[in-house]
Amino acid sequence: MDDFDVAIVGARCAGASLATTLARNGLRVCVLDRAHFPSETPSTHIIQPSGVAILGDLVGREAILATGAVPLRRLTLVNEDVQLDGDIDPLRFPDPGLCVRRLTLDTLLVEAAARAGADVRTGCRATGLVRDASDRVIGVETNRGAVPARLVVGADGRHSTVAEFAGADKYLVTRPRRLAAWAYFAGADRQGRLRLARVGEHAFLSAPADNNLYMAAVTIDISRRNQFHVDREQHFAAGLAQWPELADLLSGTERVGPIRLIDNWHGYFRQSAGPGWALVGDAGHFKDFTPGQGISDALRQALTLGETISAGFAGGTDMDARLEQWWRWRDRDAYEMYWLAHDMGAPGVPTPLVTRMLRGIAANPAATARFLEVVNHDLSPAKLFTVGRLARAALGALTERPDQAGATLREIASAIRDQAYRARHRTPVRTAR
């Protein structure tokens, strides 16, 4: 039976990316997944330019474009009567954004891991962890037998088996407030534009995907989950119709395949390092899907974790200490975007305060450029959504919509309470302890 330096459970964005990085650095890597690829999984499909840069190094830019994926060089954000249009400047963002189905993306990543020298085992299900007498993890139990390893990494998503058997606690948990439904369409205009919108009680995300398809998603208040399940076809079509621009774009197209749905989710951080184990990607952290950050998060985390593990094995230093430092980095890196995504995914109609703030950003080219940097994880949300900008937006909202002054004042008070709570919990690793 082979012994490995690292056994990775989960061979999708985070797991396959990590396996490629480690194998290229000369480590003996086994990556296993219960699925056979190509294989679908719930996803927003959107890859920010920062993620595309990593993806290009892993699988090659030519391979990505060969899928038919359209480079996304424009972003349109709609919030009721406010529209923000931004160009993804090639000088600032050398790589474009992309929208790629997981059927395609995960297969590319699994193939790259195999080419790099990782032992890829699909159709292999993890059933537990192997521990030594000191309770340190030293391998993975699977339906095909044990896989011994010096380190085990869980990259197996929100329902992580590794997290369950390691006893990884969750913290800063947020409840789901919207469900997302999406589908693919043939025959739509495939200009390279990512569209995000809040219109009435619905939120939308759409972009041209790979294989000459177009992806369109709508989110609906989670309180209507049961109603939506009664007739997905009718409610999905009615939801898309609420945004006339998207409805016009899809007019005359043909839906390809079923309507997909994610409604059983919640936001969280998890303890992501322990004796002989670590978690990466959705296994360790999951946020509201509204800003489409999950894939790029997984790629960036896998890259930094790969560097951490490789340096630990090469230097003969305390791997557990290095992994805990990485875990702390992950929490710092994800913290502000976690709450921004939570706010963007709020149910109900757009509020006067948020609408007024976005109106100010849309009218300012410099602020629009900074918004794109926030979405690309280059700029902290706090450096765009400042106290001063919030104060100006509050004054503008009270002036423009005096009929909603009471609701606006309550929203301001809620925002102040939220910021105080988030400031107190800004070191969430300590909270977990």
Summarize the structure.
The chain has 433 residues and is an alpha+beta fold. It contains 15 helices and 20 strands.
Q: How large a portion of the residues is in β-strands, by DSSP E?
A: 25-35%
- Rg, Å, rounded: 22 Å
The low-confidence runs, each spanning 5 or more residues with pLDDT under 50, are none
Proportion of helical residues: 40-55%
The number of helical segments is: 15
Q: How much is the average pLDDT?
A: 93
The geometry reads as globular
Alpha-carbon distance between the two ends: 37 Å
Number of strands: 20
Helix/sheet category: alpha+beta
User: Main beta sheet, described?
Assistant: 8 strands, mixed
Helices, strands, pairings?
Elements: E1 4-9, H1 13-24, E2 29-33, E3 46-47, H2 49-59, H3 61-65, E4 74-79, E5 82-87, E6 98-99, H4 102-116, E7 119-122, E8 126-131, E9 137-142, E10 145-154, H5 161-166, E11 170-174, E12 178-186, E13 193-199, E14 202-208, E15 213-221, H6 225-230, H7 232-241, H8 244-250, E16 254-262, E17 267-270, E18 273-274, E19 277-279, E20 285-286, H9 294-315, H10 319-344, H11 352-362, H12 365-375, H13 387-400, H14 405-424, H15 428-432
Parallel strand pairs: 1-2, 1-10, 2-7, 4-13, 10-19
Antiparallel strand pairs: 3-6, 4-5, 8-9, 9-10, 11-17, 12-15, 12-16, 13-14, 14-15, 17-20, 18-19
List keywords for this structure.
433 residues; alpha+beta; 8-stranded mixed β-sheet; 7-stranded mixed β-sheet; 20 strands; 42% helix; 25% strand
Describe this structure in words.
This is NAD(P)/FAD-dependent oxidoreductase. It comes from Mycolicibacter terrae. With 433 residues, the chain is of the alpha+beta class. It has 15 helices and 20 strands. The chain has helices spanning 13-24, 49-59, 61-65, 102-116, 161-166, 225-230, 232-241, 244-250, 294-315, 319-344, 352-362, 365-375, 387-400, 405-424, 428-432, and strands at 4-9, 29-33, 46-47, 74-79, 82-87, 98-99, 119-122, 126-131, 137-142, 145-154, 170-174, 178-186, 193-199, 202-208, 213-221, 254-262, 267-270, 273-274, 277-279, 285-286. Strands 1, 2, 7, 8, 9, 10, 18 and 19 form an eight-stranded mixed sheet that branches. Helix 2 (49-59) packs across helix 9, helix 9 (294-315) packs antiparallel against helix 10 and helix 11 crosses helix 13. It starts with a strand and ends with a helix. The mean pLDDT is 93.
